[in-house]
Amino acid sequence: GGHTTEILRLLSCLSESYCPRHYVLADSDKMSEAKIRSFEQKRAETFSSAQFTLDRIPRSREVRQSWTTSVVTTLYSILYSLPLIYKLKPDLILCNGPGTCVPVCISALLLGLLSMKRATIVYVESICRVETLSLSGKILYYFSDYFIVQWPALKEKYPKSVYLGRIV
């Protein structure tokens, strides 16, 4: 839904040097794949190198899932993400909030700690987060290389963040 639309707006501003692109979706996400394929098809009309992949991982947390069971499902999602991130070896992880990004980023951090591959993590908090961070934002604030917010009130509360104004 909204996270996919926001990330695709961000990607539309990137040059063709950001290729190939690897999209990681929650296995229960039914809408995002069609949006991504449509975006990439339009992008292929402009750029010659429109290489992308779609991968699915278990959702780390369902809406209204208890905190206790969320720990277990997130750990499972991390274990599932590790071989994927090892295979992809991304240079950059650009994410914007769905719970799926947390296990992907943690997996990338673990591979970096093991000196296998260091990925730069850029987290962009959703435009709808005006005064507080999302749960993913609260976690990734401490681990991302760049943490971008779209409202000045968030920059004031979270000094490590970068305020660029509205970017989506």
What attributes characterize this protein structure?
Rossmann fold; two-stranded parallel sheet; 168 residues; alpha/beta; transmembrane helix; 43% helix; 6 helices; single chain
Name the helicity range: 40-55%
Looking across the biggest beta sheet, what order are the strands in?
3-4-5-6
Structural category is: alpha/beta
Ranges where pLDDT stays below 50 over 5 or more residues in a row are none
The dominant shape is globular
Number of E-type strands: 6
The name of the CATH topology is Rossmann fold
Mean pLDDT: 91
Describe it for me?
The protein has 168 residues and is of the alpha/beta class. The protein has one domain (2-163): 3-Layer(aba) Sandwich (Rossmann fold). The protein is 43% helix and 16% strand. The chain has six helices and six strands, in the order αβαβαβαβαβαβ. The strands form two sheets. It has a four-stranded parallel sheet with strand order 3-4-5-6. Strand 3 (92-95), helix 4 and strand 4 form a beta-alpha-beta unit. Helix 3 (67-88) crosses helix 4. The longest helix is centred in the middle third of the chain and has 22 residues, at 67-88. The mean pLDDT is 91. This is UDP-N-acetylglucosamine transferase subunit ALG14. It is found in: Endoplasmic reticulum membrane. One of its GO terms (molecular function) is N-acetylglucosaminyldiphosphodolichol N-acetylglucosaminyltransferase activity. The chain crosses the membrane at residues 66-86, 92-114. It is a single-pass membrane protein.
